[in-house]
Specification:
four-stranded mixed β-sheet, globular
Length: about 110
């Protein structure tokens, strides 16, 4: 095995340290909203966005340095991850009035 291969194995999410507060944030959101489901979105160099949808319709997000770290954090927090945006998950989301208002301003500004 080449030296570079060893480095790749050492960075696997099972052995990598999770960012401070990520698992706690996911767990807190899930507990506050009667459970949660996550969607992980790749956002380039920034890493991955974890979009959380609570059972009560609330939603929020957290960021991780990569999709592998995001999946590991969700597993540690006991938050199931969906592979795609399913109709049932989208129908649970209840955006706030402020979000609708800001989305309207963005489309009018184009």
């Amino acid at each position: 095995m080449a030296h570079g291969d060893t480095e790749l194995l050492e960075e696997r999410p099972e052995t990598a340290a999770l960012p401070a507060g990520l698992v706690t944030g996911l767990t807190s959101f899930a507990e506050a909203h009667g459970g949660a489901t996550a969607i992980i979105e790749y956002v380039g160099r920034r890493g991955a966005r974890i979009v959380l949808v609570g059972e009560d319709g609330a939603w929020g997000d957290r960021f991780a340095p990569g999709t592998d770290v995001a999946r590991h954090a969700c597993a540690e927090a006991g938050v199931p991850v969906e592979k795609t945006w399913e109709r049932e998950l989208i129908s649970k989301m209840r955006p706030s009035r402020n979000l609708w208002r800001s989305m309207g301003r963005r489309s009018l500004a184009r």
